[in-house]
Specification:
Growth Hormone, Chain: A; mainly alpha; globular
Length: 435
């Protein structure tokens, strides 16, 4: 059976379009893998900020600032995209913005803390906007009963892209280190590699992907003001979408823990477990392989087990991972913790995106994925910033910080209990088109 089987897709959707959509995950995953996780995060703390006690907090604060911008803007941007049938157009703009700002990170050297912070804020903001807009295409492409596996296809291909960007970067780093070059010389090149791969794959994705939504009839006001009024109306009707709102609350909790793993895995590996930079890159490579397998396998398992049960299993796995990472004293055990984290990362992110698609009204996909992004960015502020604050207050106790992250996954599990997927889907389909 072909990977993008026709029975999984909506009428009129061709497999090559799904491939184009999945290619966007392939394109942007290099940014999270190389910039946020494996290379630039540790470089910022150790070289740019000189390993100061406030360095980890400065890194998490930069990420939190970008997440705050996305929180305040993405729901309105999503509502505007729905009104104007402009998801693809806005996605192209976000791609250009993220590529250019990622390439500019090559200018950040030791001591350039302010420049590094500003460019991380800009690049991560464009990345998050693009990620949300791309996710809003999912319900237009996949049938509801196949949304888990199609989401899993995208996430798994995304991890392939992340591994390619990391593999090319690792090859360059090993070559540069063999020649005796310092990190200030070889890390900037990895930023250019990541930006270049994003540009090439993102362009291919946009060429294959087409806009399915049509602009709505023009009213007296079709600008951002009308978009925000539509968003306020949706929030006033939150009771009608109570299962979607419970899912948002669940995501706001557990995605905080996922954000910790993405933003701080390299820092934890080097500061606590004693990994060298090249070991950290190999570690993240292994984590991505596990995440790819988790996203792909759980995508099919999610459609069979049910969305809610599949997500609950991954949250339990995350809790075990945090405890294992906090207690480990050897690199060997930490490798196992990273492998488990990878499996849970791929499956939990894919599952959440698919669940949001099932519960979102078909006429308001970008808007509801904007709300989903709002919840995940709240999590991305709370999780890493709490981790950074704990390390600062405890004079660098990363073990306590990672152990406390398990509480975020436990809270997510509790908030998942009230979600009823069948009831939520009925509410989404019964929703009248917005005025």
């Amino acid at each position: 059976m072909p990977l993008f089987s026709a029975d999984a897709l909506n009428p009129g959707v061709r497999p090559r379009e799904v491939l184009g959509w999945a290619l966007y995950d392939f394109a942007n995953s290099g940014y999270t893998t190389v910039v946020l996780t494996a290379v630039f995060a540790a470089y910022f703390v150790g070289a740019v900020a000189g390993g100061e006690s406030w360095a980890t907090l400065a890194w998490t604060a930069a990420l939190s600032a970008s997440h705050l911008i996305v929180m305040l803007t993405m729901p309105g941007i999503g509502a505007w995209a729905d009104q104007h049938g402009a998801k693809r157009r806005l996605l192209a703009l976000c791609t250009v913005g993220c590529v250019l700002s990622t390439a500019s990170l090559a200018l950040v050297g030791p001591g350039a803390v302010v420049l590094g912070v500003l460019l991380v804020v800009v690049s991560n903001t464009f990345f998050a906007w693009g990620e949300s807009l791309a996710a809003a295409f999912l319900p237009e492409l996949a049938r509801p009963q196949a949304m888990g596996r199609v989401s899993g296809w995208g996430w798994s291909l995304g991890y392939v892209g992340g591994m390619l960007a990391l593999g090319l970067s690792l090859a360059w780093v090993l070559q540069a280190q063999a020649a005796g070059r310092p990190a200030a010389e070889f890390v900037p090149v990895t930023m250019l590699i990541t930006a270049g791969l994003f540009a090439v794959a993102g362009t291919a994705s946009l060429l294959l992907l087409r806009e399915h939504a049509s602009p709505r009839p023009a009213g007296p006001d079709t600008g951002l003001g009308a978009a925000w009024r539509q968003l306020r109306a949706t929030l006033r009707q939150a009771r009608h979408y109570r299962d979607f709102m419970w899912l948002l609350a669940c995501a706001a909790a557990y995605q905080g823990g996922v954000a910790v793993a993405i933003a701080l895995a390299a820092i934890y590996a080097e500061q606590v477990v004693g990994f060298q930079p090249q070991q950290t890159m190999v570690l993240i490579f292994v984590l991505n392989i596990a995440a790819m397998a988790g996203a792909f396998a759980f995508g099919y398992g999610q459609d069979r087990l049910g969305h809610k049960r599949a997500l609950a299993l991954t949250l339990l796995g995350w809790m075990a991972t945090c405890v294992l990472a906090a207690l480990t004293t050897t690199q060997a055990v930490f490798w196992w913790a990273a492998a488990i984290a990878g499996l849970c990362m791929g499956s939990s992110q894919s599952a959440g995106r698919a669940m949001a698609g099932v519960l979102a009204p078909p006429a308001q996909l970008a808007e509801f994925y904007g709300l989903w992004t709002f919840a995940t960015r709240v999590a991305s502020i709370v999780g890493p910033l709490t981790y950074g604050a704990i390390t600062w207050i405890t004079d660098g106790n990363h073990r306590l910080a990672i152990g406390s992250t398990a509480l975020l996954f436990a809270l997510g599990l509790v908030l998942l209990v009230p979600v009823d997927m069948d009831r939520g889907r009925r509410a989404a389909l019964a929703s009248p088109p917005p005025a």
